[in-house]
Write a structure and sequence with these properties.
Its main location: membrane. Helix content is about 80%, strand content about 0%. It contains 15 helices and no strands. Helix 6 crosses helix 8, helix 7 crosses helix 8 and helix 13 runs antiparallel to helix 14.
């Protein structure tokens, strides 16, 4: 077990190193001068030279990458040219919105999808199964930003019970802050719930055909108990895999929804950095997104050892 964990951690570190090199290479080798992109074509040569020196662009590429990597490990991601603030502070401020939003969306997605998928598998080819199949297809087909617009029209414009956008900050109170995240979380959760429902249904169907489940039913165990005690827990490996992918998507792919609800999250920061040509912030945000995907996938791999006893035995 220890050797397996050591191997996984080493693979994680090597992957993060490769990702950081790729991100740095893409952001610094593509055609165009980052200083000219940030200042515009009307900037004077002296101003361009000063900014290039401030950003370290007059240094060799390999040295710049090494210094950037060392500073990133220390938590120093540089200073935003547009905001005039450390990028680490900007990331921390925006993560205080994006991470709770993604967490609420994941909880909603699991709460909707796992029961629907499991009950749909238990009643295969029934009317309920067909209804769940149609709903899951609908959730997958409908874009999240369109769902967001419908939610705003219904709950904010028509019923006036939920805020249509903005984020008051956590200092305004827990319920006030969470209330502003409910509609965007629902808009993000519904498409993911459609995917997770279908995955859960397929995984539970496969487990229901296993010998130990049929034996438990033959010994008189009620179908409900066999489903929730034996089938669903043993069907969690593919579900957890999809959950890991969904969480990273919700953190990195919520740009449209965050902009629709005017939420100062990480997606909006990436969009603003792109529009304002803030190369320093954009480079660090891309690195954070890529690193988050790698780390979450690593945690998902480790979770398999706890979910599947066969993998634990193989590891030993």
């Amino acid at each position: 077990m220890l050797s397996l964990l050591t191997h996984r951690v080493a693979s994680l570190l090597l992957t993060l190193l490769a990702v950081s090199g790729l991100v740095f290479l893409v952001m610094n080798v593509l055609p165009g001068d980052p200083a000219a992109i940030m200042l515009g074509t009307s900037a004077s040569p002296d101003t361009l030279a000063a900014l290039r020196h401030e950003l370290g662009l007059d240094q060799p590429l390999l040295l710049r990458y090494f210094m950037w990597l060392v500073n990133a490990v220390r938590g120093d991601f540089g200073t935003s040219y547009v905001y005039g603030a450390p990028v680490s502070e900007l990331l921390a401020e925006r993560l205080a919105v994006t991470l709770p939003l993604a967490a609420i969306a994941v909880v909603l997605s699991v709460t909707i999808a796992v029961p629907l998928g499991a009950l749909s598998a238990a009643g295969r080819n029934s009317a309920f199964d067909h209804v769940v199949g149609v709903l899951s297809q609908l959730f997958i087909a409908v874009p999240g930003f369109w769902v967001a617009l419908l939610l705003i029209l219904l709950f904010s414009v028509r019923l006036r019970i939920m805020p249509s956008g903005g984020f008051p900050g956590w200092e305004a109170g827990l319920w006030t802050a969470l209330k502003s995240l409910v509609l965007p979380a629902v808009a993000l959760a519904l498409p993911q719930a459609g995917v997770l429902t279908r995955v859960t249904r397929s995984a539970v169907l496969e487990v229901l055909n296993e010998d130990y489940v049929r034996t438990a039913r033959a010994k008189g165990l009620p179908q409900r108990v066999a489903l929730w005690r034996h089938a669903v827990p043993n069907a969690m490996v593919p579900v957890v895999t999809i959950l890991g992918l969904q969480f990273t998507f919700l953190v990195a792919g919520a740009i449209l929804v965050e902009n629709l609800f005017n939420l100062p999250g990480l997606g909006m920061l990436a969009y603003q950095a792109l529009m304002q040509r803030d190369v320093v912030v954009l480079q660090d945000v891309v690195l954070f997104f890529a690193g988050l995907v790698v780390i979450v996938n690593f945690l998902v791999d480790l979770s398999y050892l706890f979910l599947d006893p066969r993998l634990r035995e193989a590891a030993r």
